[in-house]
């Protein structure tokens, strides 16, 4: 049986990503795609509350403030929380492409420990596209955009149809999201992965 390839290196015939003409200008917030998203949702009390901004080309930035509730070891961020912040920032790139895509593979390098109180400056960018496959990288730097590298990731996102969410999500959340009178929020809840 042949499983999916696990390579995060784009194939030779991959193409450069194209920033969507409707993507926000560099520096503008992309806004939360879903209020209850763990990564960016304003109504998610346990979430990371990332405010993701458009970058140049097909890139995005965010700042994670590492809080006490993010600890893994005393005074240090949990690696899974850092990976989630990278994943969320990478996931926002779908909005820059206007492609519905979900994380298929996320490979994370934890380069240095990240103390509570750190402002981790995240930057993600799409490097190549091959059919439904979107290749991207991300990095988190401590203290500022040029600060020391703390975490980095390489990822493969896979473009999906909206049914990925409507057929797999739990009914009550799907119904609630669909019933939102704000049609822009309805579109974003399902166009960018929850
Ligand atoms: C603002 C936005 C915030 C977003 C939040 C952050 C993003 C997220 O966390 S999304 C949630 C986490 N991800 C998920 O739940 C996805 C769960 N997985 C799935 O649904 C499926 O496995 C899915 C959709 C990724 C792929 O399934 P399917 O649609 O059947 O595609 P499939 O035909 O298997 O693969 C398509 C291509 O991708 C490749 N591929 C698929 N999975 C992988 C993988 N894990 N590693 C490497 N390559 C892969 C395949 O090899 C294939 O390549 P090719 O076209 O060259 O043959």
From TrEMBL:
Q: Which reaction does it catalyse?
A: decanoyl-CoA + H2O = decanoate + CoA + H(+); tetradecanoyl-CoA + H2O = tetradecanoate + CoA + H(+); hexadecanoyl-CoA + H2O = hexadecanoate + CoA + H(+); octanoyl-CoA + H2O = octanoate + CoA + H(+)
Membrane topology annotation: Peripheral membrane protein
Domain Thioesterase, first and last residues per copy: 75-141
Enzyme class comes to hydrolase
Q: SUPFAM superfamilies given for it? A: Thioesterase/thiol ester dehydrase-isomerase (SSF54637)
Q: Where is this region: Disordered?
A: 1-28
Q: Which residues cross the membrane?
A: none
Which keywords belong to this entry? Apoptosis, Cell membrane, Cell projection, Cytoplasm, Fatty acid metabolism, Hydrolase, Lipid metabolism, Membrane, Transit peptide
Stored Pfam families: 4HBT (PF03061)
Entry keyword Lipid metabolism: yes
Q: What are the subcellular locations of this protein?
A: Cell projection, Ruffle membrane; Cytoplasm; Membrane
> EC annotation?
3.1.2.2
InterPro entries per the UniProt record, alphabetical: HotDog_dom_sf, THEM4/THEM5_acyl-CoA_thioest, Thioestr_dom
- Family (UniProt): Belongs to the THEM4/THEM5 thioesterase family.
Output the PANTHER family linked to this UniProt entry: ACYL-COENZYME A THIOESTERASE THEM4
Protein name (Swiss-Prot/TrEMBL)? Acyl-coenzyme A thioesterase THEM4
User: To which species is this protein native?
Assistant: Streptomyces zingiberis
């Amino acid at each position: 049986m042949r499983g999916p390839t696990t390579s995060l290196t784009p194939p030779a015939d991959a193409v450069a990503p194209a920033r969507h003409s409707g993507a926000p200008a560099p520096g503008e917030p992309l806004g939360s795609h879903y209020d209850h998203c763990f990564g960016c949702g304003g109504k998610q009390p346990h979430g990371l509350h990332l405010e993701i901004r458009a970058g140049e080309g097909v890139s995005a930035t965010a700042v994670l403030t590492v809080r006490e509730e993010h600890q893994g070891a005393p005074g240090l961020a949990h690696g899974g929380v850092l990976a989630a912040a990278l994943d969320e920032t990478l996931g926002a790139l779908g909005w820059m492409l206007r492609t519905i895509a979900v994380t298929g593979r996320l490979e994370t390098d934890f380069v240095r420990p990240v103390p509570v109180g750190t402002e981790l400056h995240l930057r993600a960018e799409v490097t190549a596209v091959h059919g439904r496959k979107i290749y991207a990288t991300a990095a988190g730097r401590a203290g500022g955009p040029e600060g020391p590298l703390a975490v980095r990731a390489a990822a493969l996102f896979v473009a999906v149809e909206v049914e990925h969410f409507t057929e797999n999500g739990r009914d009550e959340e799907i119904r609630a999201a669909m019933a939102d009178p704000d049609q822009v929020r309805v579109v974003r809840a399902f166009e960018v992965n929850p």
